[in-house]
Amino acid sequence: MQYEQIIEDIFRRHPSVQNAGFKTGAYKSGIEAMCRFDALLGNPWKSYPCIHVAGTNGKGSVSSLLASNLAVSRKCKIGLFSSPHLLDFRERIKLIDGRDEAHFEVIDKASVLEFIEKYNKEISGLSFFEICTGMALWWFQRQGVGAAVIEVGLGGRLDSTNVIEGELAVISSIGLDHCELLGNSREKIAFEKAGIFKKGKKALLWGHDTDCDQVFKDVAEQKGAELFYADDLIKTLPELEMDLKGEYQKANLKSVLAALKLLGETPDRGALEHCARISGLRGRWEILSDKPLTICDIGHNPAALRYNFKQLESYRKKMHIVYGIMADKALEDIAPLMPEQASYYLCAPKGSRAMKVPELYERLRKARPELQLLTSGDGSVKAALKAAREMAGEDEVIYIGGSTFVVAEALEE
């Protein structure tokens, strides 16, 4: 009970962007406060090597694949800091233990309480993400990790995680998302993400990009980082039966294999094939049931949904799509990508950030009048999912997505 009360108080005093959005004071751009907090903690990340991962899409999968492979190949504990969480914020802070049978552990409640009680005064002016970042770096040191994989929260240059100096910086992709904060062009977003490059360290890009290459080259030269491209390092992909089933994972796998090559590590087939189980990664083309085939995926921006909708259409089955979106997302760019041959069960996940069902319905109806748009009950994820399950035949497919929050609520069902 003490733990639940303290966590509730922390969320009240330090609301997360995930729940409160970017315009509520939950998001704090810049790393000055985090640098002071990191110094207070004794710069815990200096006691273990770090790999820093940024990217519009794919950074969570790349981080989990890297952590899983390093844990298994080195037979040690690897720290993994990632976001967002789906069900419990402790999912953000994990150990991947590669000794004996590889598995993951989230930070224990006792350590969370210890950290909050010890630094209660010092965290008073910090954001939720800054607190989580400090907690992760501190806990990894206490656990004696052999290395840590640190995923950027937003952007890179001004992200709280940029207090670390990673042995390797990885950028998994560049797309248009969070444009109001990172810039309204791929070049501007690339500049922000390249902010994780460090002097004398290696930086890896997923591949060559005509829009962004010069930006990356300029930042690398300015910072004195050595630049590499996954496309140059990895020419062919091995045949793997990965439990991360999305077609987009092929690009992520190439980045991971290139990163392992730069780190002097041998790829471990088992770790790559069983990453979801080993690392606890969820919501990435996750199959929830077989009859009907029910899939959930947290992809929410145009670049991610283009991949997902294309993969859905390749099944050549009748589609039932449970769909909700945050109000700050570019629906006008997503609507043209939505498959016509599908039934859409519109919903709004809990929280103030969600686009309400009537608005979602009207905007989609205006943009794509040919789509079959359905609303159910109170417009909740639960109601939409129930309706889809009642309508879908055993040989059809249900897809749940559009938002991390939609997926999170579906996983609770």
What would you say this structure looks like, in words?
The protein is of the alpha/beta class and 413 residues long. The protein has two domains: 2-279, 3-Layer(aba) Sandwich (UDP-N-acetylmuramoyl-L-alanine:D-glutamate ligase), CATH 3.40.1190; 286-412, Protein-Tyrosine Phosphatase, Chain A (Alpha-Beta Complex). 40% of the residues lie in helices and 15% in strands. Helix 15 (331-334) links the parallel strand 11 (319-323) and strand 12 (342-346). It is globular and about 55 Å long. It starts with a helix and ends with a helix. The model has no long low-confidence stretch (mean pLDDT 94).
Give the key terms.
single chain; about 425 residues; alpha/beta; UDP-N-acetylmuramoyl-L-alanine:D-glutamate ligase; Protein-Tyrosine Phosphatase, Chain A; 8-stranded mixed sheet; 6-stranded mixed sheet; 14 strands; about 40% helix; globular
